[in-house]
Amino acid sequence: MCISYIPEDNTQLQSRKFLPHINALLRGDTQVSPDFSDQYARIYQGAGHYTKAEKFRALVVEKHRKLFGDDHQYTLKAMTSLAETYMDLGQFEKARVLLVDVLDKQREILGDDHAETLESMADLAATYLYLGQYENALQAGIPALEKFKHILGEDHPGTLGTMNNLAYAHLHLGHLEEALKLQIAIFDKSRQGLGEDHPDTLRPEGNLVYTYIKLGKLEEAKKLQVSVVEKQIHVLGEDHPETLTSLSYLASIYNQLGNFAEAQKLDVSVFEKRSQILGKDHPKTLASLASIALAYTGLEQFEEALKLQIPVLEKRRQISGDDHVDTVTSMGHLGDTYNHLGQFGEALKLNILTVEKRRHISGDKHSDTLKAMANLAITYGAVGKSEEAKELQVSVLEKRRASAGEDDPNTLRTMVHLGAMYLNLGNIKEANKLIIPAQKKLIGNRDPNTLLVMSSLATAYRTAGKIKEAKNLDKLFPKLKPSPAT
């Protein structure tokens, strides 16, 4: 097969076959025509060699501008392709600038309802996702989706891609049911149209896994993700960036299931490969490093976690700025580690900042904001600010009851946390109102977060002189690390 005849929907599958031949062909050849540059870029892009793809795509843009001018469709398509490569390189602001320019020109030349204009609208919405601007992504994506459905149909790849981007935005804004509904529809349509093993089917299947993780359906997520990883290794190879993304999702599931050693093993492997392929400062490489640190936290190796979390936060601040969701996530993780190490002064500064940023990004009711507030409450309690700690936990509990219901595990764990605070304040009556019903519903829940909160409760019981209740907890949750004896 000649590379000029590789279908667009088959590039990923064929790229690995052509890659050695192109590498051999290009040795010593510095002059490449625009047509061949475009084809070489497609192969490198499909194989996940984004730095080489960028070189050729930038060359195509430059030559098309000289030959056809800034407003020609060939030039605009080349700019869109270069923006795609910038996205994969983690250079999201560069991608956004290019796509805004392309979209403005296409609206002027082709009109709002042309297929090329619609695709640019969808691409720009995707860029907002990676910049952590989820409301902007929704605002750009919703009208694009309506136009895609009306003009190109519900099964068009552009329609499905836009649906996927909207699902991702909904997911990060805490609209979990909306995200799940969209992703199930995408997966079903991709499977019917392309088959179960096609890369464009495996991608939405992996995104569906991420939604299951957010919904706390970890066993379903694990089963589905193991299947996705096996298929991607077979179809794309072990080192392809999309395979590595799926492996990182699997590691995240292991982390949340408490299988920290297995998670860390996977994360280290992914980190090493991403460092080689994408570079050490790429956002996805930094995400792998952050995940390794989380495994250290789960293994209670807090000093090791700290060694990784400090440089990850510094890099994310340099690359994405203080207000990006990845940077704020790193602030929260580092604050949590400082809590565990008893460095409450450092924890307090970071946790206050994390809550402020989370409120700005996602609002008061988002699960990530509530988690940040709960962590800050723990820090307030540790530094003797009991009233501030109690007020925060009461607020978290009210919001979790309103959004997720009384029986949600996060609501129940918040009840236990607040109950433990009342114990420490000597208010046994209020403590029991919260602890007793929550404890009954959490029996049998082996989530690491449940075990951790019960361990804290056992400590609070012992501090209050209630040794019998503490020992009862050790029986009900036998995998708990024994809390310190008094």
Walk me through this protein's architecture.
The chain has 486 residues and is an all-alpha fold. It is built from 23 helices and no strands. α10 (199-214) packs parallel to α12. The longest helix has 19 residues, at 50-68. The radius of gyration is 25 Å and the shape is elongated. Mean pLDDT is 84; it is low at 1-16 and 480-486.
Task: Tell me the layout of helices and strands.
Blueprint lengths: L10 H16 L7 H13 L3 H19 L4 H16 L3 H18 L5 H16 L3 H18 L5 H16 L3 H19 L4 H16 L3 H18 L5 H16 L3 H18 L5 H16 L3 H19 L4 H16 L3 H19 L4 H16 L3 H19 L4 H16 L3 H15 L5 H16 L3 H10 L10
Helix pairs in contact: 1-2, 2-3, 3-4, 4-5, 5-6, 6-7, 6-8, 7-8, 8-9, 9-10, 10-11, 10-12, 11-12, 12-13, 12-14, 13-14, 14-15, 14-16, 15-16, 16-17, 16-18, 17-18, 18-19, 19-20, 20-21, 20-22, 22-23
Organism: Mycena pura
Pfam families: TPR_10 (PF13374), TPR_12 (PF13424)
Protein name: Kinesin light chain
